[in-house]
Task: inverse folding
């Protein structure tokens, strides 16, 4: 399903994924021989395509090739995220971990790059991660709640039940943080550590 908005000063197209609420957003790029201009966030335009969250924190990370970050979520202070890449390319993944959801345990992914300028909106109740496809990548994300280390949880990136295709080249071994290497699978997460659907 495609929706577009333009009255707020931004031309924005929404592409829904198989996961309810998770969507790819494509802003229109205005370019000429000087370069380009895009408006990456506009409250009115985002509301027109169904995203009405208030964002309270912006984060910026730099990662090198073959780094995989995730899968992360917060059980307390759950965060919706609006993510994009301003240098390089990543494969970005959202996993539905909401107990009772019709798509529980399913995932959706999108290539995000400085070239395609796509954004990925991930609502609360999803685990999130990305894999770096380029030599380096700079990743920006807006969050709807503040980081809460006590409420942070995770799922191992290579959970066999999720069977996520991270686009890792054959023979490559993703570079993980110590924390990300120790996460368990979705099925082993205690019920109280998973958000509830609805």
Result:
């Amino acid at each position: 399903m495609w929706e577009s908005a333009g009255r707020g000063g931004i031309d924005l197209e929404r592409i829904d994924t198989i996961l309810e609420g998770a969507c790819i957003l494509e802003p229109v790029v205005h370019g000429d021989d000087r370069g380009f201009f895009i408006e990456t966030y506009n409250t009115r335009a985002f509301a027109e395509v169904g995203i009405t969250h208030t964002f309270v924190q912006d984060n910026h990370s730099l990662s090198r090739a073959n780094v995989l970050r995730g899968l992360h979520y917060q059980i307390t202070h759950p965060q919706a995220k609006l993510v994009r890449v301003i240098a390089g390319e990543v494969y970005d993944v959202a996993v539905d971990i909401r107990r009772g959801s019709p798509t529980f345990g399913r995932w959706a992914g999108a290539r995000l790059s400085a070239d395609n300028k796509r954004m990925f909106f991930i609502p609360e109740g999803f685990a999130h991660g990305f894999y770096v496809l380029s030599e380096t990548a700079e990743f920006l994300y807006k969050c709807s709640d503040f980081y809460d280390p006590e409420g942070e949880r995770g799922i191992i990136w290579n959970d066999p039940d999720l069977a996520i295709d991270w686009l890792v080249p054959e023979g490559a071994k993703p570079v993980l943080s110590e924390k990300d290497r120790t996460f368990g699978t979705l099925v082993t997460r205690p019920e109280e550590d998973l958000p509830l659907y609805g």
About this structure: Residues 1-9 have pLDDT under 50 and may be disordered.
